[in-house]
Known about the structure:
The complex is a heterodimer.
Chain A: H1 4-17, H2 23-33, H3 36-57, H4 61-91, H5 93-102, H6 108-141, H7 148-156, H8 159-169, H9 171-199, H10 202-205, H11 210-213, H12 215-219, H13 225-243, H14 259-284, H15 290-323
Helix pairs in contact in A: 3-7, 4-5, 4-6, 4-8, 4-9, 6-8, 9-13, 9-15, 13-15, 14-15
Chain B: H1 11-19, H2 23-33, H3 37-53, H4 64-82, H5 84-88, H6 106-115, H7 119-130, H8 135-142, H9 146-167, H10 172-175
Helix pairs in contact in B: 2-3, 2-4, 3-4, 4-8, 7-9, 8-9
Amino acid sequence: MTDRIAHDLAALGADNRRGLAELDEILRSSSVYRDDRPGAEARRDALAEDRRRELALMPLTLAHVFAHRVARAAAGAAAMLCALVIVLALVDPMMMRLAAFMVPGLDIGLVLLLSAGFILVAYILATWIAEHRFAARMRRAITTRGEAYRDLDHLATGPLDVGQAMIRRSDGWSTGFPLAGVASFVPVAGYLVIVGEMFHPVSVAYSETFVLRSHSMTSNAASLVPPIAFGVAFAILVGILVAREHRFGRRGVLDHWSMLPIGICVGMVWLYITFRMIGRYDAYGILPSVEHGKLVAYLGEAAIMLPTIWVVLFWRRREQLRIADQSL
Amino acid sequence: MPTMQTLPEPTGQRFRRLLEPIHDKAQTFARCLCRSRADGDDLYQEALLRALAKLDDLRADAAFRRWLYRVIVSVHRNRHRAHFWRRLIPLAGDERAEHDPESLGAVERARVALAELPPDQREALVLYEIEGWLVDEIAALHDVSASAIKSRLARGRDRLRSIYSKRFGVHASIALVIGGSP
């Protein structure tokens, strides 16, 4: 720290250490001319007025961003739950019977439809709850209770800061959960579609209940678990990094635009291998090997995760610009 | 029957006993946070008043330093936010925005640059660079993780560099030396 800034800061420190008031003098003057109670009450009232004005003029963007972040996290969690239930139902016949009992006529089309509906409802419900919670927190931020010093402490953090803090706290969740949701649900949905269409005609695959219980569907489902677990773990890691205000390096790797073409390339490779696998089965009845299946699963997971991470981080950056959060 | 030792110490005496060893540093800290020494002294006095009024809430004497600094930070942020409207509508005669770079000395330059930082970054930088606190101590003061403080320090330094570069014409490459990781 030998440059101008370091020198200036050191000079500032040295300057401020000069001419310090004696403790006696400060304590004496504090008790002589400053009666704290009326002054504190006046400051409290003025501050409360400022806070009310601040709330009245506060941009609605804060509430929107918070609500949508919470909703994204909820939708991600709902997607994870759907994926978990589907995988459990596929690998455990008991669960499948229970699911079929609860939803008569359960087939792939209905499973996908119900899952999509559940995720959508979770998103809408979470948006609504988050907006109400935000409004309640804002009301609390400008409420005074009668004790001047406590109120001053309470009002020291205004609605703007409370709102930004809420948004910042939701940052990690709103990044990790959607990623984990996509990492778990999309491969499961893709598995249902690909295996369903591979072994059955399209007209049957989406409308017959036995397809879900077919041997081809249930015996290969376990191979989905490792790549999904890997994808979810990676999503959680990204969420934690975001929550810790990590910026992924000076010029971020994960939120760099090159993630998109790389993801598209991986996706093309995945598509090629998958179509080749399906074609070989259709033409010659050759079943893919276990290694082949694993490769497809991992490639599919990577093809989904790379562009999704970029999109989520890009969206997050856009939200930060919208709320003009200086500290992020 | 309570002995003399077990009787509660009067608040004023307790406050004085606890404040005495850290008085100078705390006052310096308050001055560094503010745009001028007078503002800093005023801030310090207000913080002491508030601390004295709430001293009974403090259970452990050992935590006094952190507690007092928290009060100072709280009062400072309180004042900073009270100027919320000034940021939107500059008042006539508010000359804080106008500085002649050439005429400023080192101390004034540092004051001007620090005043432009957000409070959390300013507090972290003052405590770390001027007061010599450890990152963990600052994290404990703010009730956040050490990595959050490191992040604030890094952002604060970045911003200081850009302020120096824009306002005082100090080239960024010269100022970059400051940016060692905490």
